[in-house]
Amino acid sequence: MTARILIVDDQPDIRKLIRLTLEHLDDVEVYEASNGSDGWRLAQDLRPDLILLDVMMPGELDGYQVCTKVKRDPMLGPRTKVILLTARAQQEDKEQGRKADCDAYLTKAFSPLKLLDLVDSMLGREA
Fold first, then answer.
1. How far apart are CA 3 and CA 17, in angstroms?
2. Which of 2, 35, 78, 85 would staple 59 via disulfide (CB 3.0–4.6 Å)?
């Protein structure tokens, strides 16, 4: 079964790096959004299996807010996993991610192999 993955990050280079990394996985469709508001709208339309979500983005919604919305949405929350991606690695940042109900917290700059392992795990696949 094909898994839908949504990348939400304001930096085109990061989105490209993640997309190229995910191309190594079988049976995935990758979608992108460049800000939190577009990411939230796309998540509602696509109902992705996994969202890779940057924490710090300009605009109305940051990654924590999008994560909270996804996890509280009755159509998304029970089935959509969220991995927060951020350069912020302080304990209070991780605690804020936990309060937003994220499923995992990955600190930039992350290894592509670590990302692939985490994505496989979130999708219930063998690594």
1. 19
2. 35
At residue 126 the predicted structure's pLDDT band, cuts being 50, 70 and 90, is: low
Is the Cβ–Cβ distance between 7 and 31 less than 8 Å?
A: yes
For residue 93, pLDDT beyond 90: no
What is the sign, positive or negative, of the torsion defined by CA atoms of 45, 50, 31, 84? positive
CATH number at residue 66: 3.40.50.2300
Could you tell me what percent of the chain has a pLDDT over 70?
A: 98
Q: Domain range for residue 9?
A: 3-122
d(CA 101, CA 110): 21
Q: Does pTM top 0.85 for this prediction?
A: yes
Buried b / exposed e over 36-59, threshold 16 CB at 10 Å, is: bbbbbebbeebebbbbbbbbbbee
Residue 124: which region, alpha, beta or left (left: phi > 0; alpha: psi -120 to 50)? Answer: left
